[in-house]
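B., you asked whether I could sanity-check this one before it goes into the benchmark set. Here's the sequence:
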Amino acid sequence: MAAVDKYTKTAVTLHWLIALFITANVILAIGAGYVPDADVRPMIDLHKSLGITVLGLFIARVLWRLTHKPPPLPAAYRPLEALAAHAAHLALYALILALPVTGWIHDSAWSAAASHPMKLFWIIPWFRLSFITGLDPASKAYVHTLFGHIHTYLSYALYGVLGAHVLGALKHQFFDKHPEIQRMWL
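And here's what the prediction gave me:
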């Protein structure tokens, strides 16, 4: 495959790091309901750390994308397939941004936030959103619940769009015989 048909190494690295951290966060979020109570808080703290990291990687990915044109879709794509691919990418970008932001808002409104400082990976102090932490207790409780639900529903949307993204790539790779995976591999 010609180098022009591949994403840059930076884009590939960011793509797979984001995918890895999102996968880990899904496992942590689902797994937190199946572990002893003593293990839940560390899992949630790691979930938050990975979420903030994904937000940073997402910003880097968007900045990279704005300054480096991606390779064109294969010419063999039908118009509807190209439209679906672009729509899925836009939806993924929106969800990858919205999930950490809604999680951060949810966490900032947590009633125990003041007594449990946020530290990325238990080392790096991280701030909560002061416009949320400064709310009165009733408003914070409302925001905490609301954004917890939004965060959860967005995660379900992510599962669907991500599933479509993976299935689409596998369809093009194995059924249509397009070198799809090679475009996003180092």
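One thing to flag: The mean pLDDT is 92. Otherwise nothing jumped out at me.
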